[in-house]
Amino acid sequence: MAMLQRDETIEEIKRLDALLEYAVMHGDEEEAERIRAELHKLTDEV
Question: pLDDT of 4-36, one tens digit each?
């Protein structure tokens, strides 16, 4: 079960990273900050 949870976490990080890149490219700083906070929260759990 731990492997599955780890894989899901990795996929979530990849998804958030792509969304962050998109937000930054399009100048949506508010959304970028929200995504950064989500990434920090997720990576602090690891």
Answer: 999 999 999 999 999 999 999 999 999 999 999
Q: Is the pTM value of this prediction over 0.70? A: yes
Sign of the CA dihedral with 8 first, then 37, 17, and 23 last: positive
Tokens of 32: 């970028």
Tokens (6 digits) for 2: 């731990």
Separation of alpha carbons 1 and 6, rounded Å: 9
Contacts of 44 (CB under 8 A, 6+ apart): none
